[in-house]
Design a protein that fits this description.
The chain is built from 24 helices and seven strands. With 642 residues, it is mainly alpha-helical. The protein has four domains: 101 residues, no CATH class; 68 residues; 204 residues, no CATH class; 201 residues, Orthogonal Bundle (hpI Integrase, Chain A), CATH 1.10.443.10. A three-stranded antiparallel sheet has the order 5-6-7. A two-stranded antiparallel sheet has the order 1-4. Helix 1 crosses helix 3 and helix 15 packs across helix 19. The longest helix has 24 residues. The chain is extended and about 100 Å long. The protein starts with 9 loop residues before the first helix and ends with a helix.
Length: 642
């Protein structure tokens, strides 16, 4: 049985007092013990009762049996208060003794009620005395195993959260801090956060005032567009802003005035080499040595304007604009606050190496508190550390920036060509075929779906599983698709025209499985089939309205919830169920890629079908044979050898 009580704290006694005063056990366990499920609440309550009773018995407390009891007081025929009694009967002029006598005559005491009140008072008094003696005060350096149940503690320790302080600091940084905890979603994570705040108090989550980042008042995007990005792992998020400046050739300073995503500093950062007062309210870079205007191909007066020209010329989509601006502005701000107001032209090889080291180990003062608004003491530029993939992406974009600025003759030299920017492989990154569903897992998921009662939700998930398995479309592509995007050639072969990544159109060849899935789904929506349905209707529709489109979040949650339930109830091995615990819509795209390679589909066909920008992306992602295929080939080659 799972242990929920290791060390007794004040929250355990608060739970017992709440139960004693009539609060339902599940509600009290949720509030004070961080337990949300009924059977777990009952178990945690009994363990708490046993622990406190053991202390009471060791102290020879005769009333130890009262601990844990819910003593209910009669609620019917409740007597009014003495003040109400006086007002009701107009007894203001009577003496206190006379009023008490009349009150007792009107509402004689109930011996049973009085006995219960005395028992409850004894119970609460005993709990208060035992709390003063036995309740421990949690400290930030305590092990999580002392204050969380065994199952949760094991998950936390495996994820690197050994002490309460480590956990509170990571939660304070914001983002999906629980992403590495198996079986922990948003609801459970919020419950853990509430429990930790109950243990340590809110002060443990506050950022020191020396780390205060002030958002500039003239930021053009406004706070609503500012989101302190952390480890984005290839995704884009909202924009964030910071107060900084860039110098031109004449030494004039200009406010940065551009949104900063995942890395804008709004005020001076404390520096390990200078007192914070030396950097307070700094807002300009040092003068930037620039090529003569006759040699420059850009009409840019400073680094910021040069970067905006680069973004305008090279970014092909809004998502790319956000990423380019985020990474370049982060570099400018790092130069300002960590390199004493250097400009791009002043960067040298040492600066390049140090910037790479900075990305590998983001200082604590650059990391924001969760839900902190720009301009508040808890706000900072990052949500958390960067993964190796995010570090590599940042440097790749910065190198592209420098190459372009040198070609435009804005920079005379490019220090990045002299730096080794190879980060190596990420030891924590899973291979692609481990982020896909095996054929056995796919069969289990489809079997679970077919066993559920017919409903629009079941029809939609069955279609998505079968269609995406054999097409590999991105979520955005299937959400944009309409029935008019399907076409039938003279040989009876179907294809689908989709708007892919980077606003690029491509045509996807559809196998028979895909068409059968579409026709069945349309029939279930009452739209006939592909040849009869109105072409303006979306391919994927709402469960409430068969002709209304849905958004990305609805699709993600729909697929994630169905996959989670199906995998949890499947007969798959435990290890595979744990691996698939975080399966989502994008896993179905990887399932198509790995399945196509295993079935000897040429890589150039896979590239065209999946819409990869280059053949190299397809080859590097899916070019390696899946492990099961490699095992079978090696076994076949070396079977029978002594």
């Amino acid at each position: 049985m799972t242990r929920y009580v290791h060390r007794l704290g004040q929250h355990h006694f608060a739970h017992l007092r709440a139960v004693a005063e009539g609060i339902p056990l599940p509600d009290s366990a949720e509030r004070y013990l961080g337990i949300e499920h009924g059977h777990q609440a009952r178990t945690a309550h009994l363990q708490t009762v046993d622990a406190v009773r053991a202390i009471a018995r060791r102290r020879n407390e005769n009333a130890w049996r009262l601990i844990g009891l819910s003593i209910r007081l009669p609620t019917s025929s409740q007597a009014p208060s003495l003040d109400d009694f006086i007002a009701e009967r107009a007894l203001d002029g009577w003496s206190e003794a006379e009023i008490l006598e009349m009150y007792q005559e009107a509402y004689p005491a109930n011996p049973r009620h009085q006995r219960r009140e005395r028992l409850r008072e004894r119970q609460l008094d005993l709990l208060r005395r035992l709390q003063d003696i036995a309740a421990e005060q949690p400290h930030s350096n305590d092990l999580v195993s002392g204050w969380f149940d065994e199952v949760t503690a094991r998950k936390l320790i495996a994820a690197g959260f050994t002490t309460l302080q480590e956990l509170s600091q990571r939660i304070g940084r914001g983002g999906r801090w629980f992403a590495t905890l198996p079986g922990i979603g948003h609801t459970k994570a919020q419950r853990m956060e509430q429990h930790l705040r109950l243990l340590l108090g809110s002060d443990a989550f506050k950022r020191p005032t020396s780390d205060y980042f002030q958002l500039p008042s003239n930021h053009p995007s406004g706070p609503q567009n500012i989101d302190p990005g952390g480890d984005l792992r290839g995704r884009t998020s909202g924009l964030e802003g910071g107060k900084s400046g860039v110098g031109d050739a004449a030494g004039r300073s200009h406010g940065l005035g551009a949104p900063v995503e995942e890395g804008g500093l709004a005020s001076a950062l404390p520096s390990p080499t200078l007192p914070s007062s030396a950097l307070r309210v700094s807002s300009s870079f040092a003068p930037s040595p620039s090529p003569p205007s006759s040699l420059r191909l850009l009409d840019a007066r400073n680094d910021h304007e040069a970067i905006e020209s680069w973004i305008s010329a090279r970014a092909g989509s809004n998502a790319t604009v956000k990423v380019y601006r985020r990474e370049s502005t982060r570099l400018l701000l790092w130069l300002q606050h960590e390199r004493f107001h250097k400009t791009l032209a002043q960067m040298n090889v040492e600066d390049c190496r140090d910037f790479m080291a900075f990305l590998q180990n983001i200082p604590e003062r650059w990391i924001s508190r969760r839900h902190a608004s720009p301009g508040t003491p808890d706000w900072a530029p990052f949500r958390g550390p960067l993964s190796l993939r995010s570090q590599r992406q940042s440097i790749t974009i910065v190198i592209g920036l420098f190459n372009w600025l040198q070609s435009a003759q804005y920079l005379q030299a490019n220090p990045w060509v002299l730096v080794n920017t190879d980060f190596g492989d990420d030891p924590n990154r899973q291979p692609v075929d481990s982020r896909s569903l095996s054929e056995a897992a796919m069969s289990e998921v489809l079997r679970f779906i077919e066993d559920q009662p017919p409903s629009p939700s079941r029809h939609r998930i069955a279609f998505l599983m079968r269609f995406l398995e054999c097409t590999g479309l991105r979520s955005s592509e299937i959400l944009r698709a309409k029935l008019e995007d399907f076409s039938l050639d003279h040989r009876g072969r179907w294809s689908l025209r989709v708007m892919g990544k980077g606003a690029k159109l491509r045509t996807v060849a559809l196998p028979g499985q895909a068409i059968m899935a579409v026709d069945l789904y349309l029939a279930q929506r009452g739209l006939g089939n592909l040849q009869l349905a109105n072409g303006a209707h979306p391919l994927v529709a709402s469960t409430r309205d068969p002709v209304a489109p849905i958004g990305y979040q609805a699709l993600y949650e729909h697929v994630r919830n169905w996959l989670s339930k199906a995998i949890h109830r499947s007969a798959l091995p435990y290890a595979e169920r744990m691996k698939l615990a975080n399966a989502s819509t994008h896993w179905l795209r990887h399932t198509y890629g790995t399945r196509a390679v295993a079935r000897d589909v040429p890589l150039d066909v896979i590239q065209a079908q999946m819409g990869h920008a280059t053949f190299e992306i397809t080859a590097s992602t899916y070019g390696k044979a899946p492990m099961d295929r490699r095992h079978s080939e090696v076994d076949r080659a070396f079977s029978g050898l002594s």
